[in-house]
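Appendix B. Extra example for self-study. Work through it before the problem class; the solution is given directly after the inputs so you can check yourself.
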Amino acid sequence: EDQVTQSPEALRLQEGESSSLNCSYTVSGLRGLFWYRQDPGKGPEFLFTLYSAGEEKEKERLKATLTKKESFLHITAPKPEDSATYLCAVQAGDYKLSFGAGTTVTVRA
Amino acid sequence: ETGVTQSPTHLIKTRGQQVTLRCSSQSGHNTVSWYQQALGQGPQFIFQYYREEENGRGNFPPRFSGLQFPNYSSELNVNALELDDSALYLCASSRDRAYEQYFGPGTRLTVT
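Solution. Structure tokens for the complete assembly:
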């Protein structure tokens, strides 16, 4: 069974204090690894797809990287509007997404 | 381009009742997936519909069922509601099975 573990569970940052979120996974036949952002009471918002080890994607202050066993989401110089829960998910041969429990990021001004 | 929409936004039901949730997929998307998200947890896969056929199912009992229509919109039906069914139900569409999924705002179901 596919397993996704995210750490830490919660992260409190000062504005401008860069940090990284970890997503470790066990999956048979990875099709893709996805990062989403979710605000309270709303649906997840798509951020990135990574397909193979060594791949990197960037969007504004976010950068996602992928190895054979884990992915990192780096937040550079975060702002309060980056406060959200960040979800990692893997897709295997059956096309379903298996999600981790998420990392809740709070950025203080 | 209209995104994924879901209705209703909120719903309160009594244990034992039945409920139908609706989802309109994004234009050009032929795949719809449904997820259940409990508070503080990641979304859990219920099932996926691809070109009107069920294309995979998670660990949910048969009282969770669904449909996909020719316009690729979808319904999730839950019979014999239990208290543990209280959750945020999310619908996601994608332009094919292997592509990124775009989520709707969700339906908050409360079972009392």
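Self-check: Chain B touches chain A through 28 residues (CB under 8 Å). If your reasoning did not lead you there, revisit section 3.
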